[in-house]
Amino acid sequence: MQVAGDRRGPDLLRRVLAGSDVEPSVVEEKLAAPLPDAGGAAPPPEPGVEDPLRHVVRIPPREGRTAEWPSWTPPELRAAFAARGIERPWAHQAEGASLVHDGADVVVATGTASGKSLVYQLPVLTGLLEDPRATALYLAPTKALAADQLRALDGLAPEGVRPASFDGDTPMEERDWVRRHCRWMFSNPDMLHRSLLPRHGRWGTFLRRLRYVVVDECHTYRGVFGSHVALLLRRLLRVAARYGAHPTVVLASATVATPGEFASRLTGRDVVAVTEDGSPHAGRTVAFWEPPLLTGITDDGGAPVRRSAGGEAARMLADLVLEDARTLAFVRSRHGAELTALSARRRLAEVAPELADRIASYRGGYLPEERRALEASLMSGELLGVATTNALELGVDISGLDAVVLAGFPGTRASFWQQAGRAGRASDEALVVLVARDDPLDTYLVHHPSSLLGAPVESCVLNPVNPYVLAPQLACAAAELPLTEDDVASVFGGAPAVEVLDALVEEGVLRRRPHGWFWPDTGEAPAAQVDIRGSGLGQVAVVEAATGRMLGTVDGGAAPGNVHPGAVYLHRGEGYIVDELDLDQGLALVHPEDPDWRTEAQSVSDVSVLAVRTARRYGPVQVCFGDTTVTSQVVAYRRRTAEGTVLDQTPLDLPEQSLDTRSVWYTIDPEALAAAGVDDARLPGALHAAEHAAIGLLPLFAICDRWDIGGLSTALHPDTGLPTVFVHDGHPGGAGLAERGHEVLDRWLRATRDAVRDCECRTGCPSCVQSPKCGNGNNPLDKTGAVQVLDLVLAALDRPEEP
Length: 803
Fold this sequence. Notes:
alpha/beta, seven-stranded mixed sheet, seven-stranded parallel sheet, 26 helices, globular
C-alpha cells in the first residue's frame, strides 16, 4: 500500500542530515542495509569515519479494518460520529464497545491513534442516554489528558449528559455544580483520593447512579504509583457498592504485555482484553542516531565525550521547524526540555528569527494557566516545535505531526511506541529519530535496533500488597467506611492486609472492633497525608525569593538532588539558582540567574540486608533476592560546562535518607575471581563497573528508569562476607523492579555483558560503565574487569542449581 507523501519521512531525515556532517545520500544506503540480530554485535564503523546515523528502518503503512455499528447504537450518536468523519468504527472499536455495553470489564490495548476513546465513548454515552439518571467517572493520569478528552465530547455528547471537569484547577465555586449536576465527570486519581472518597457522603447521589468507570492510559499506573492506584480503585468500587452501584470498568492502554492480566491486578476484577488493532496508520521512518564524539575532549577519567542527546535534539528540532515540519522533541527531564527548547530557539534566531517564537517547552510543574495557553497553541498550530517531557506522551491529542525526536530512550518499549505514535496521524509518512544518550541502554539499542523494533513490549509491574502502600491505603479505606473481614479478604489482599492492619492497630492508627477495623474520629482524614504519586515526602514548592512567585514543584524525595542549594533550576527557558532548601517547610528559594554551566548532585549510599527471600547457588556464585535498607545522602554537587568539563565540586550538608526496599544481589567466591584474572587490586573497579552497567540495562527488561533503581558494589560486604553486587528498587517496600531483575537475571546480565564488551571505548565511558548519578565520581571503574566478572557469573548460571 502506498500513501500520499510516502517519501516525507526519508525527506525529513535528509534535512536532519543536512544539518550534520553526514551526506544525505546515506539515507537510502541505511534503508537497504539489514539490521543486526538482537543478540549480535553491531558492525564497527569504517576506520576514521564516525557515522552517527547507525540504522534506518521504514515501517510500512497498514490498512484499517472496519465493522458495522453495533445494533444498539443510538441514531443520534451514529450521526454525531459521522459528522466527525467516522462513518464506521474500526474492528477493535466495535468489539470493545459491544463487550462494555454487555457489562464486561474491558481493557483495550492498541497503538497510539487507534481510536481507543470510542471504545468507551460509545457505550458510556449510550448508557447515559438509556438511563437519564446514570452517571460515569473518567480517570486520567494527567489533567491535560482529562481536559482533552472532555473537549472531545463537544458536539458528541447528547443534551443532558452534562460532562464536566473536576480536578485541582476547577474553581471552588464550580465544584458544587459538578457534584450536583454533572453526569460524566472527568477527573484523576488524585482528586478521587483526596476529595471525592473522603467526602463520599456528599457524592452519594453520583455514586449511587455510577454505571461506568473509565481508566484511561492505564499502563502509566505501574510501580508504587500504580500500586496506590490499584488500591484506590478498590476503595472506589467498595464505596460505590455501599451505595448499591456496581459499575462496569473500561480501561484504555498503550500496547503492553498481558494487558488482561495487568488490568485485572490493577482493578481487582476479571478483565477481558481487546488487543487486535484494526486501525490504519501511515508509514514511519525510524532512525537510530548516536551523537558523534567531541573532538579532543575527554572527561575527568580520560573517557571520550559525545555530543549530548539534548543538544542533538535541539539542532534537529530547529532544522525540522525550518522545514515547516510540526515536531515534538521528547526529553527525559524537565531541565532538559527547557534547555532543548532554548537552544533550538537560539539556532532559529540566527537563521530565521520569525520562527524562533514558534518553539516552546512543555513539562510538568507549570502553573495551570501556563499549561492551558501552551495546549491551545499546540492545538491551533501556532507552535511548530515543542520540547517536552513525557507530559505530552499522554494528554493533548495532537494531530498532523510530521516528526518526533526522542532525546534518549524513554525507558520502555511501550513508551517508545507511545511517543513515536504522536507522529504519522495524517496520511503523510512521518519521521521518528531516537537520539542515544551517553548511557548503556541507549547505546545498546542504537547498535541493536532489533531489540527495540522486533521485541515484545514489557509487562507493567505493580505490587498492591507492598506494606508501605497498603498501610496508608487501608487507613484511608477505614476512614471512608469501617473495614470488615470480608473487605480485607475479598478486596484488599487477605493475609498481607491483616498483618498490616494489626500493625496499624498496634500503632494506634486504627481501632479493632468485633465487626472490623475503624478509623478513630481524630479530625483530618488520612487521605490528606498520603501522597499517591511521590516518595511519601510530599512536594517542595520552588519560589522566587524576591517576588514570592511560585515557579513550580518538585517531589520531596527528589528535592535534595534537584533543588539543593547552588543548583541550577530552569523554568520556561529562564535560569534560576537555588539559594535555600527547607525540606521541613517544603520550600526552595531561588533567584534569577542564567549561568553557562549546569549542576550535578553527588550522593553516597549503603545497603544492609534485612531478610533473604530466595537464594540460589551456582558453583562460586550465589544469587539472592530479599529485603534491604538503603541509606543515601546528597553530599556535594559539581558544576559542569555544557561540554561536560567539571569546573568544581561543592560540599553540601543535607540530611540522610533511609529507604526500606527490596534488592537482587549476587556474590562471588574470591577464589573464582582470582582464577578469572580479577585480583584484589582490580576487584572494586570491576564490580563497580558491572553494577553501573547492570543498572543501565535493567530498563530493557522491566518498565522502569535507571533513576527508579540504584545499586551498590563492594569487594567485601559485611552482611554477605563476600564480593557483592546489589541492585535495589528506589521506592519504599519495592516496586517489583528488583524482583523482575531476579526473574530474568541470566538475560539481563547477558545483555549487560554484551553492552560493555561491544562498546568502542577503551577504558569505560558513559555509554557502557559510567553512571550520571554515581556518588563516587565514577571511580574506580574497570571495564575489562567488568566483562571478566560478568563472564564468570554467566558461566556459573549455565550450571545446574545446587541443592
